[in-house]
């Protein structure tokens, strides 16, 4: 597929090429990964650089390698994830690549493996808010060349900080929400770009200059008058911000496909059910007696659990969709997320993985969501249709599981959809994420909905013309 950049992506690419150390504050769904790949591809043509992308696990394992394979212009880039058990990681580390990817949790392990022989001159920190807790130690004696950092902060940020200071000639940060909990989050991230030049050599200096405590007994910092404007002005030369509302028609949702691959054992179960309409799991026999039942079982397997009898007992099979959802929630950085599920087994697993989430059951749940008191709301499309108003609570919806009914899909989307957002006075895009188990019936369901939508759109258009 030929990569045709969106109108703003050349701006992002050029900004990266002209700023060796920079931050891209780009909202979700705007294609920042592709823009960075474009810039790295151009850098390869001028000077063969080796890049390390540090990202959440799913993003490091799948998103970056798949984005490289997707576009013809970037297929020559060899992108190798340093993911898996220690044997797999060591093998990946030894394999020459233009770009290696790794999850944040394995940065200390990577440091143990390479020591001072750090081979990457370019570091890309995807979801850079994970660096916000970085702190220097040493107080007034600290200088921009010191690498000692406080021991009470995350080891991975400490470790990456040393290489950012001594080894990386380029450092690129990506995030859609640079300051989810306030401007205090900026200092740690900015240090990796300028080592304290713009916001102060230490977090204490940063805090004392632009924040204050309302009283001696208060633990909450307040911004000093004019602090936000001054901070923004200081960092504006190395940070670029893009908002969806400036480039997209907000009357349409921004839809992102999130493909996941079933683990080999889970895919083997899926193929057996698909072919034989029968499988055995943990000494339990599961059988589908007709095509409709087989479709149901395959959808369950795609989501990660399968019912084993008529009593609604079920067995977990895999967690890859839960992992993908966790990455989306992390990327949202505190923005509320509406999750559409289909099977009760999935709801149980969702509640276990995300204990702060809440099932939509009562009017109070609806009110709590709209008041911002629920970070993750689980809703079944069949029970979240007409009559519900959820637009005040958020603008992100994730379809964890899929079903054939187009109306259910559209109805739950419309609860937070663009029309309702605008009616409520919000000038913000609606983000839709479809988590799809690749090579399963998920593909067929989604395509079926697209086809039905096309037919429906034609009918609607014809009605408007008559």
What does this structure look like?
Strand 5, helix 6 (155-166) and strand 6 form a beta-alpha-beta unit. This protein has helices at 9-18, 32-46, 57-70, 86-94, 107-114, 155-166, 186-194, 203-210, 227-235, 264-276, 291-303, 320-332, 344-353, 363-370, 406-414, 418-423, 441-465; strands at residues 21-26, 51-55, 79-81, 99-103, 122-126, 170-175, 211-213, 221-223, 239-242, 254-260, 278-281, 284-287, 305-307, 314-316, 337-340, 358-359, 376-379, 396-399, 431-437. It is of the alpha/beta class and 466 residues long. It contains 17 helices and 19 strands. Helix 1 packs across helix 2 and helix 10 (264-276) runs antiparallel to helix 11 (291-303).
Properties at a glance:
Rossmann fold, 17 helices, globular, 41% helix, seven-stranded parallel beta sheet, 19 strands, six-stranded parallel beta sheet, alpha/beta
């Amino acid at each position: 597929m030929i990569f045709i950049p969106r109108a703003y992506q050349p701006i992002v690419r050029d900004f990266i090429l002209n700023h060796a150390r920079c931050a891209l504050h780009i909202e979700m769904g705007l294609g920042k990964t592709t823009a960075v790949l474009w810039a790295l591809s151009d850098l390869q043509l001028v000077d063969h650089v080796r890049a390390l992308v540090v990202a959440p696990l799913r993003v490091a394992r799948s998103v970056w390698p798949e984005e490289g394979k997707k576009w013809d212009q970037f297929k020559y880039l060899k992108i190798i994830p340093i993911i898996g058990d220690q044997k797999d990681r060591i093998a990946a580390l030894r394999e020459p690549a233009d770009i290696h990817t790794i999850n944040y949790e394995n940065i200390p392990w990577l440091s143990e493996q390479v020591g001072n022989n750090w081979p990457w001159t370019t570091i890309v920190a995807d979801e850079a808010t994970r660096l916000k807790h970085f702190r220097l130690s040493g107080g007034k004696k600290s200088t921009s060349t010191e690498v000692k950092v406080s021991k009470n902060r995350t080891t991975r940020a400490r470790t990456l900080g040393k290489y950012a200071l001594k080894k990386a000639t380029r450092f690129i940060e990506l995030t859609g929400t640079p300051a989810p909990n306030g401007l205090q989050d900026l200092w740690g991230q900015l240090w990796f770009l300028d080592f304290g030049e713009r916001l102060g050599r230490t977090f204490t200096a940063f805090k004392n200059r632009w924040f204050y405590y309302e009283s001696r007994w208060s633990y909450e910092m307040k911004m000093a008058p004019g602090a936000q404007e001054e901070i923004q002005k200081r960092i504006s030369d190395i940070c670029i911000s893009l908002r969806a509302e400036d480039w997209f028609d907000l009357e349409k949702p921004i839809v992102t496909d999130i493909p996941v691959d079933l683990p080999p054992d889970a895919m083997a179960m899926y193929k057996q059910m698909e072919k034989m309409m029968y499988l055995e799991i943990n000494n339990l026999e599961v059988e589908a007696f007709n095509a409709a039942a087989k479709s149901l079982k395959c959808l369950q397997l795609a989501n990660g659990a399968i019912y084993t009898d008529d009593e609604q007992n079920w067995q977990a099979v895999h967690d890859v969709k839960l992992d993908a959802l966790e990455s989306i929630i992390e990327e949202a950085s505190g923005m509320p997320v509406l999750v559409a599920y289909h099977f009760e087994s999935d709801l149980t697993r969702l509640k276990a993985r995300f204990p702060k989430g809440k099932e939509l059951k009562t009017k109070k749940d609806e009110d709590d969501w709209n008041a911002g008191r629920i970070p993750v709301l689980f809703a079944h499309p069949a029970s979240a249709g007409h009559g519900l108003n959820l637009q005040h609570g958020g603008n992100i919806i994730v379809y964890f599981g899929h079903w054939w009914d187009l109306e259910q899909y559209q109805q739950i989307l419309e609860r937070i959809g663009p029309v309702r957002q605008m009616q409520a006075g919000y000038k913000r895009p609606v983000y839709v994420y479809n988590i799809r188990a690749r090579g399963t019936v998920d593909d067929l369901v989604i395509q079926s909905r697209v086809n039905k939508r096309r037919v429906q759109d034609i009918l609607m258009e014809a009605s408007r013309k008559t």
